[in-house]
Amino acid sequence: RRHVRHFRRAGDLLTDPANDLRRQRLIGIGLMCGAVADFACLDAMGKYLGTRMDVLQVVGVRYASAFLLTLLVSNPIVRPGLLQTAKPMLQVGRSALLLGSTFFNFMAFRYLQLDEALAILFSTPFMVAILAGPMLGEWVGWRRWIAIGVGMVGVLVVIRPGLGGLQWAALLSGASAVCYAFYSITTRMLSRYDSSQTTLFYSNMLGMAIMLPVLPFVWTPPQSILIGALMVAMGAFGAFGHYLLIVAHRHAPASVLSPFMYTQLIWATTFGYLVFGNVPNHWTLTGAAIVIGSGLYLLHRERRTAR
User: In this structure, are residues 122 and 174 in contact, taking their beta carbons and an 8 Å threshold?
Assistant: First the structure.
């Protein structure tokens, strides 16, 4: 009996790290799904406002409101070490990448539908998977490569009816995808050194510092209370979504989290129908099913690998 109890305790010690790893990765995946749902709301608001004012104003207001809102709950007075960063240049570079991705994305929304722009943006996991190996040491196995490829097939199914109609604005979404891939990698790198609050504070502060001098040249007063409210809400959604993204990267590798950005396509299709009257066709529904299936398979692989 003593030997049986000994082996049971030894087995528990062996399985605890695996269970902890599984739990951490599942938490990261859940946070990532919440972040992209938040970003879908942000994109819908950005597209709506981008047709009523200059895109530079939309981007500037998004950063200014996000910085002011987060300043109320997280500032150097409440958190004395908030501005302390082990990698200041990496913080600057990450913030610039996020600003570039946001600008290119909002510009693309002026000319493309939400699902078209996001379908191009969803090439990011391929870039992240390629970069995560040499930059982070997180090499992707062949099963995950296949799952990512299947997810991309689903994205291509969504945009197939409009392949001949995609215009030069598709290059804007492509530029946004490149910026976002490097942003994802730098977010993971900074998670090893700085706190989530520090990284989020620098993102909003540097973005606002860059855009604030531009606002007087493009500013137009809000045309209604709704537009004014959406301008403020953009900051709240942007700050909260990126906070979830930062925390998610603390729980799981970038190569694991990135495929779950595909779930944003479902939200984009929903908002496109509810806000802009874009009725999803059978290609969109088929592609969304493929994307969801790919994400569920990756979740299954995470559980099986952990076991």
Answer: no
